[in-house]
Specification:
Elements (H helix, E strand, L loop, with lengths): L4 E2 L2 E2 L7 H27 L9 H33 L3 E2 L4 H12 L3 E10 L5 E9 L7 H12 L3 E3 L12 E7 L3 E10 L9 E6 L5 E8 L4 H20 L4 H14 L9 E7 L4 E7 L4 E5 L2 E5 L15 E6 L5 E5 L1 H7 L8 H6 L6 H15 L8 E10 L4
Antiparallel strand pairs: 1-2, 3-4, 4-5, 5-7, 6-7, 8-17, 9-10, 10-11, 11-12, 12-15, 13-14, 13-16, 16-17
Helix pairs in contact: 1-2, 2-6, 5-6, 7-9
Length: 400
């Protein structure tokens, strides 16, 4: 019986061949063994060698810490390679006849295609990879082609963020993903400590994969440039690691190691991470020394708190992980410590949930500004610490 083919690729063939999987697993095992070697040598080192004099002891202690950090990094790398090897992505069946129909329809608008693959990702969502070029003078965008593919494949697709904007005359590969169920709007309001010119808080919103929105907020210990430098590093590294496909826990452990290994004075920063799956509405908080976060559902408010310490103190950071399911019209509200400090000078932090629940604004930016202004009023305009309010609103997309 003839199997369906998509330009020569068996529809049931894994994207990563067995040979590649074995190579990755072998490399991961080798890296893990190297990490174990670091730790075994450290255990075998006689205690007497570490305590001959104070300078020698300090040097040996620093060397021991660096070896432990190196072993930890190697194990994290090995784990990532193993996860990649275990990822399952398969091509969906497409008959040669259907491929020709799609190719003909696109050629009618001046687009020539080859290597069209329909891929089911690990979440069960469809991804489309297609190589194409423009054979006419009319300029067409990747988004316009995505709309046409949505009709031809009978599934709502959106262009991946790293696609070229226009389809050029040279062959290029474009990626499209199944459109998410939810969409979001974000809002931010900030205030800088009254004795400083620069905030020690930093934040970012980004896509850490298809159908995902992630928010990261970090509060550097202290204030001014030093705090800003530390929190900037935490935010930028977190974004880089997550966009590269690292798990949040892995990224946090590696960033914590960077803070610990710094030659400067002890660096400490909080980390508040919120990741939202726009297909399911599942929301995941990862908190390390951060202030409380809130989920607002009309007048009801859910408080997410953690009692752990910031990063840069212990070799293994203490992470509090909390999951929630969001519904249409919910808001996520995140703060830096300056907000709770300001409220402690007025009505107290315990009243914050009531303030959030009684807010009837709908725009995330306006909600963030309303909360910040309320807190500044409570501390009578004396901003004694950097204040940041982040708001994410989530809504279900309307069916067309």
């Amino acid at each position: 019986m003839k199997k369906n083919m998509v330009n020569g690729m068996n529809s049931f063939e894994c994207i990563l061949p067995d040979y590649g999987r074995r190579r990755l697993i072998t490399c991961a095992d080798s890296i893990r063994e190297l990490a174990d070697t670091f730790q075994e040598k450290e255990k075998e080192q006689p205690e007497a060698e570490k305590t001959e004099d104070r300078n020698e002891y300090i040097w040996q202690k620093k060397l021991s810490e660096n070896k432990s950090l190196m072993a930890g990094h190697l194990k994290e790398m090995a784990q990532i390679m193993k996860q990649v090897a275990e990822e399952s992505r398969r091509c969906e069946p497409m008959s040669e006849r259907r491929f020709r129909q799609i190719a003909h329809a696109l050629k009618e608008v001046g687009i020539q295609i080859k290597n069209l693959y329909l891929i089911e990702n690990e979440k069960g969502k469809l991804e489309v990879s297609v190589s194409m070029r423009n054979i006419k003078k009319e300029t067409l965008s990747a988004e316009e082609i995505g709309d046409l593919l949505s009709v031809l494949l009978n599934i709502r697709l959106s262009a991946a963020g790293d696609n070229p904007y226009f389809v050029g005359t040279e062959w290029q590969t474009f990626y499209y993903i199944e459109e998410a169920v939810y969409h979001v709007l974000t809002g931010v309001a900030t205030a800088v400590k009254e004795t400083e010119r620069i905030s020690g808080d930093n934040y970012t919103f980004f896509e850490a994969g298809a159908g995902n929105i992630t928010c990261v907020l970090s509060d550097g210990m202290g204030s001014g440039e030093k705090a800003c430098k530390d929190s900037t590093m935490v935010v930028e590294l977190t974004e880089r690691f997550l966009e590269a496909g690292f798990q949040a826990e892995t990224a946090i452990r590696m960033i914590n190691s960077v803070l610990l290994s710094s030659d400067e004075n002890r660096n400490m920063s909080t980390l508040d991470l919120c990741s939202v799956d726009l297909y399911s509405g599942e929301c995941r908080f990862v908190k390390v020394g951060s202030a409380c976060s809130y989920i607002k559902r009309q007048h009801l408010v859910d408080r997410i708190s953690a009692g752990n310490l910031p990063m840069g103190i212990f070799q293994k950071p203490d992470m509090e992980i909390v999951g929630r399911t969001l519904l249409d019209g919910d808001y996520i509200i995140m703060f830096s410590d300056g907000i709770t400090d300001a409220l402690s000078q007025g009505i107290g932090e315990e009243m914050l949930a009531e303030v959030i629940g009684s807010c009837h604004l709908m725009n995330p930016g306006e909600i963030a500004g309303h909360i910040l202004n309320f807190c500044i009023h409570q501390c009578k305009g004396h901003i004694r610490d950097d204040m940041t309010v982040l708001v994410i609103g989530i809504w279900k997309k309307e069916e067309e």
